[in-house]
Design goal:
Blueprint lengths: L14 H5 L5 E4 L3 E4 H17 L7 E5 L4 H12 L3 E4 L6 H11 L3 E5 L3 H7 L8 E5 L13 E2 H6 L14 E6 L9 E5 H16 L12 E2 L8 H4 L1 H7 L3 E4 L5 H10 L4 E4 L1 H9 L12 E4 L6 H9 L3 E7 L6 E4 L4 H6 L3 H10 L3 E2 L4 E5 L14 E6 L11 H7 L5 E9 L5 E6 L4 E3 L2 E3 L1 H8 L5 E11 L3 E10 L7 H13 L11 E4 L13 H8 L6
Parallel strand pairs: 1-11, 3-4, 3-5, 4-8, 5-6, 6-7, 10-11, 12-13, 13-14, 24-25
Antiparallel strand pairs: 1-2, 8-9, 14-15, 15-16, 17-18, 18-19, 19-20, 21-22, 23-24
Helix pairs in contact: 2-3
């Protein structure tokens, strides 16, 4: 038998747009445009550059760049060479960036000129890095001493690399989670896992009928950083489908809005804070945003943000996942059978959009108690979300104990508390570490935040537990007020109290303290840093 085994390698994802002769382009900031044949040639030339530097199976190659066509080329060329793409979280502290690059064992570093001052601070902490390549948006950049060259010049002079077949279980990518305690943890994904995740995204979105549509006719522009979970894995799917793709470079709201209009973008994804920034930007007020499909992840989609986006014609909906899950676990899709049967169709639609959605293709999801027993699927019974899928990270790099804890019982433990209703929709109640334990009850900080966000003056809110001698913990709300609004602590507290009086939330959920702040501390990927907020109130007694 001489049958071809067809390993699931990332290079297979490039075959469809070429076979179908896609006439779409990869666009960078509106200034540079590449056809798919040009893109594939650049990927091959980057492979030639890497081979000339001695990269091969198992080599680690780190990238520090803004969202760009260069990053997309690295998404393919590096793992297709058999090397491992290490995406550097540029928003970490310098010592954490140095730690992650060194811990990954990176030998080659591709770095944007904007990050050269940072590299100067940590270069001595990177003994494994033997080759550094400059990435630049300037037409004739000055190459720093000791660098191997500039990306574009190297690409032009490189040979077209022929990418070999190898075992589909070869590591393809690695990056580091953005936990708020200790140093970041490294996760890895194989070629097989990236390909299956890509197919999972495409097949899940193919089920959509009333929202969340995604096809080769769309124009895709990611608004989450490409260093984080492969920009949620969607660039791989967009490339396989031969879609028009737009990359914004460094995130600037005005640039995003300009490209939305000029490139006629139809599909994006981002965290809630980014959507807030876009909708509140002056340039957005007279811009037609109808027909824009936006996936919200990273943290919960609030009702107020959902309604604000819907009022502008945006198809906004939620997805759920983690760095460790590649990341898609669930996606919110509207279902006609549920909407048609609902007494209030609009209310049902909002509720579905705010949920975390239904499990994606190939995902097994359970809600379990502390003994790993399933809880009822009634939308009320809560437990930890545990999952299985063919693309979940198998371990944390060099951390056996954390890996064992992640996969205890043969299921990946997300650390999230959730509930699944009778229709299969997941609702995330809270992170295990963020649930507030007050008066013998568990209070969801996310539920309290959702209520406070209904106040018309509130722009952002985060609720954490503050130590209390009598109740154990009591909710403390950090609130950012909209520009020009007047803070009103009593009105905000009354919003929560009114829900508690109708038994929609515990009476213990009414915040003891409301602290007005100019901004909420965020992690490097835009999530609210609740550990930092808890630190701010540590030792503060009730007044």
């Amino acid at each position: 038998m001489n049958a071809y085994a067809y390993p699931l390698l990332i290079k297979q994802l490039l075959k469809m747009p070429m076979a179908q002769a896609s006439r779409r382009e990869i666009v960078y900031r509106g200034d540079q445009r590449f056809t798919y044949p040009q893109f594939v040639e650049r990927v091959q030339r980057l492979g030639g550059v890497l081979a000339a530097f001695g990269a091969g199976i198992g080599s680690r190659i780190a990238v520090m760049d803004w969202d760009s066509h260069r990053y997309l080329e690295a998404y393919f060329a590096i793992p297709m060479s058999g090397a491992v793409l290490m995406t550097v979280n540029i928003r970490l502290r310098p010592e954490q960036i140095a730690y992650t690059i060194h811990h990954s064992g990176a030998e080659i570093l591709l770095i944007h000129s904007d990050f050269l001052p940072l590299l100067a601070k940590v270069r001595e902490m990177l003994p494994t890095v033997r080759v550094v390549v400059l990435l630049s948006d300037e037409p004739d950049p000055q190459i720093p001493e000791g660098f191997a060259g500039e990306y574009e010049a190297l690409i032009v002079g490189a040979t077209l690399h022929q990418f070999p077949d190898f075992d589909e279980n070869t590591e393809a990518t690695t990056f580091y989670t953005t936990g708020t305690t200790g140093m970041p943890k490294g996760v890895v994904f194989t070629h097989r896992q990236v390909v299956l995740h890509t197919l999972g995204i495409m097949s899940t979105l193919a089920m959509a009928g009333l929202n969340a549509k995604f096809s080769r006719e769309d124009v895709y522009m990611p608004l989450t950083p490409m260093f984080h979970v492969h920009a949620w894995g969607i660039p791989y799917a967009a490339t396989m489908m031969g879609m028009q793709q737009v990359y914004v470079g460094r995130f600037v709201p005005e640039t995003v809005l300009r490209l939305l209009a000029t490139e006629r973008v139809t599909v994006s994804h981002c965290v809630p804070a980014i959507m807030h920034m876009i909708l509140s930007a002056p340039a957005a007020q007279n811009l037609d945003l109808s027909g824009w499909h936006v996936i919200i992840g990273g943290s919960a989609l609030s009702r107020s943000l959902c309604e604000a986006a819907l009022s502008r014609g945006i198809d906004i909906f939620s997805a759920y996942g983690m760095s460790e899950t590649c990341p898609l676990i669930t996606l919110t899709q509207l279902r006609g059978d549920l909407l048609d049967a609902a007494p209030d169709r609009r209310e049902m639609e909002i509720g579905l959009r705010l949920s975390a959605g239904m499990p994606a293709a190939l995902v097994d999801l359970r809600i379990v108690d502390e003994h790993m027993r399933d809880v009822p699927r009634d939308g009320k019974s809560v437990g930890e979300v545990v999952v299985r899928a063919p693309y979940l990270t198998p371990y944390y790099v060099g951390d056996t104990s954390a890996s064992d804890a992640l996969w205890r019982g043969g299921w990946m433990h997300t650390g999230d508390i959730g509930a699944v209703d009778e229709n299969g929709y997941l609702r995330i109640i809270d992170r295990v570490k963020d649930v507030i334990k007050s008066g013998g009850e568990w209070i969801s900080s996310m539920d309290v935040e959702g209520i406070i966000m209904t106040h018309p003056s509130v722009l952002e809110v985060a609720v954490v537990g503050g130590t209390d001698e009598r109740w154990g913990e009591r909710p403390v709300a950090f609130v950012v007020i909209k520009p020009g609004a007047v803070p009103d602590e009593q009105e905000i507290r009354a919003k929560v109290r009114a829900r508690s009086e109708t038994d929609q939330i515990s009476r213990h959920a009414v915040p003891d303290r409301i602290i007005f702040v100019d901004a909420l501390e965020k992690t490097s990927v835009g999530k609210v840093d609740k550990r930092a907020l808890r630190a701010r109130i540590a030792g503060v007694r009730r007044e």
